[in-house]
Amino acid sequence: MSAGTSTARLSPAERIGRGLKYSAVGPVDITRGALGVGFNSTRSSVSWVSNRYRRGRIKSQLRKDLAAAQEVVTHIPQALQEVGNTGRRPKPLVLIGAGVAVLAVGAVSFSIIRRSTQPEPSPLPPSVDTAPRP
User: Fold this and answer.
1) Please, what is the Cα angle at 106 between 105 and 109, to 5 degrees?
2) For 15, which of 10, 41, 60, 72 could close a Cys bridge (C-beta 3.0–4.6 Å)?
């Protein structure tokens, strides 16, 4: 085996090129190369067709969902009118009070969580002498 020979498998296109280059193994390599190119082309075509089919099914489902969503959205103004006629708006003081209550609960919970994450000091004396030596 010479130093220039590669042991890697040939792609179909390389096999055709090699077949045309070498006359002794040419017909076999040309045939194998042509079959490989045809197989790869067929596999690619099947993959493309299946992807198109899958995307088409997804698109049709999306169209159905979009139509249903459009129908719901068109009925929103009527539903809001029906709800708007029956309810009263809360007074501004009630809204301000609710906001203050939410902030107070948030501040208390923040301080509790922060304290719980800090380690407690050890009741044991330090294991090293903390006084500096001259």
Assistant:
1) 85
2) 10
- How far is CA 127 from each of CA 118, 123, 124, 130, rounded to the nearest angstrom? 21, 12, 8, 9
Q: What's the CA gap between 11 and 56, in Å, rounded?
A: 33
Angle at alpha carbon of residue 127, lines to 123 and 131, rounded to 5°: 100
Number of separate domains in the chain: 1
In this prediction the pTM is 0.32
Angstrom distance (rounded) from CA 17 to CA 32 = 11
DSSP letter string, 47-91 = HHHHHHHHHHHHHHHHHHHHHHHHHHHHTHHHHHHHHHHH--PPP
Residue identified by tokens 């500096």 is 132
pLDDT in tens, 56-100: 777 777 777 777 777 877 777 787 777 666 656 668 888 888 899
Q: Which domain holds residue 110?
A: 90-117
Whether 20 contacts 33, CB under 8 Å? no
The per-residue pLDDT for range 97-118, each reduced to its tens digit, is 889 999 999 888 888 887 777 7
